[in-house]
Amino acid sequence: MKLNIHIPEPTKPIPDIRTGEGLLQWLSTVDHKLIGIMYLCTALFFFVLGFGEALMMRIQLMRPLNNFLSPEAYNQIFTTHGTNMIFLVLTPMLLGFATYSLPLMIGANEMAFPRLNAFSYWIFLLGGLILYASFFAGGMPNVGWFSYAPLSERFFSSTKGVDYWVISLLLMGIGSVGAALNFVVTTLTMRTKGILMNQLPLFVWMVFINSFLILAAFPVLNAALFMILIDRQFDAHFFVSATGGSPVMWQHLFWGFGHPEVYILALPAFGMVSEVIPVFSRKPIFGYEFIAASSVAIMLLSFGVWAHHMFAVGLGTTFNAFFAASSMLIAVPTGIKIFNWIATMWGGSVQLKTAMLFALALVVNFTIGGLSGVGFSLVPVDWRLTDTYFVVAHIHYVLIGGSLTGGFAAAYYWFPKITGRMLSEKIGKWHFWLYFIGFNCTFFVFHFLGLLGMPRRVYTYPDLPYLGTLNLFSTISACVFGISFILFFWNIFYSLRHGKIAGNNPWNAWTLEWLTSSPPQQKNFEKVPLVRSRRPLWDMLHPEDPDWKRENKNKIKKKGNE
Amino acid sequence: MNKNRILMFFFVGSESFFFLALIISYIYFSHTGGVLSESSHYLDIKRTGIFTIALLSSSITIFLADVSLKRLNRKAHRIWLAATIILGLIFILGQTTEYLKLYKLNFTISKNVFGSAFFTLTGFHGLHVLIGLLVLLIVLIMINNGKFKTIEHTAFSSAAIYWHFVDAVWIVVFSVVYLGALI
User: Fold this and answer.
1) In the Cβ-directed half-sphere of A435, how many Cα atoms lie within 13 Å?
2) A248 at the B interface (CB within 8 A)?
């Protein structure tokens, strides 16, 4: 069979999806910009679903002994919510920004493998849809986003939910590995003339490092997923304790992937704020080398901390002590970045645009999430708090306070480049404050709920002192949090029609993506000047005082001192 | 270095983590619950050893194919490539007959945890060999149709990287599964 549809090359930077031709151009595109936009739209779409699930849980937990949701429904909803938010919202958001911006930032016209890029996106989307297909096949997965064995074995979970979950994650894993391969090779081979590895924008560095994490972590998950699928479909015994299997092995393999995954979601967000903070402080980033090198340290260390998720298993004191120490150690390179960002702002002329506000929120909220994380590395603390709402608070502070907030900073920062129009600052400020207040009020009380002993993943709770009040407060705050997202959607909708025309470089930024038009034409750049420093656009605009001259002077000085 | 080759290097690097997880699981599961001693006598080391030699020599033939392509000796290239495919097929044939024999002896993936680990590890390796064979076959057909110009040289040498990787994994798997059972 031969498909003989002629699809003309798009003439507009963003084809109109309402025409048949435009739709086909979207479906068949291998352009990194369009694929990046599709990733981002996918993230928004699944975000609506995931947030709806979260709201249903909050309504159920609004008061003690509520019966808005049945226990069975609640199990399915929290599992789908977790999987959805991690794999279908944060991952495509980060991959989307990277796919869109990485080639632009290194002065390339395409990714190294455009067709692999399209393949990665579509197989990723297929995986996402398969997760929700389980709803029509007799029930969503209901065993939590880390599917602990033997609960996830067929004996305990006889519906097809877990099988769909496994296949969905396998497909998304293949997509992520494909994307990561593409990022690595693109960074290595597609850089424009003159740009050295130590002159790459930090976002590119973070995506580059992150890709190695993906390449090493996802295959481990895939192996574990295949094993549980073989257990369920072919009666194998990997994780069935009754017949000699080992449920603990599932935990080792899952967290062997799962902890690097946390950094897979965090590092690109760190990269985003490392772009945003210097631009809105009107100062070059402080300690570029430290940010890049500490991320390499995070990448390596993140493979040696997985068992801090397993302190309650009873692996022995030596084992626990090792992982407690390594978990404390990994906080150091993360802390270094916080100080880098603060030092970048120090003495700069800080402009509190919405993008900058979100970047600042990341610094604050990720620090809170990081600190509760260091708390967990103390084994007795972990024993007391594991599987309580304290853990739920921690994961939300890291993933929303870190990754999602970074994503919003990037959205406000790059929206003008992607669409050619500015997002409204007025709606943006409202969005930010409702987001910041709503988020902190919803999730900070989870710390207290956890300390009071409220277990996670239980559909209701008894009427004990404070529990009802704190939960009601959290639910009301979640509604405020929800309104902030409605404002964001309204902002996109409004600004696409009425937003201020952006121009090439609305923020006076210094990296190469701001050199081309907004939105960029199909061919990103007609001509890229020779890059000689980390801030090529600064050099272009300030020929009297370019960065590379100063760097040369410093080098000569250093040599003189030696 | 060419981007196709870089891609393939990182891809096999990523794949090696997949096999690492499977091999670690195999080692763990084959030593728990005393299933190794009651199951290892199912493995025919000599027979598999012969097929192992076939797979390992295919690494040499594909190296020779690569060399002859670089010297633009197209005829030798085709012959060595065909030899590689035949050696790979012999290996797959050996594995298939081994599986059939084991199933006749009622040693299956669901028999015990050793069976689960054994069939999963060797099965995934076999799948990788099959994919490698498919890739090499496509390359061979393209050469025969004259679609392969010198420019696409890296397409072949990238496929060769993958084939070497599949071989290297088998060396580890054979050592762990078959030679390890001797200890």
Assistant:
1) 29
2) no
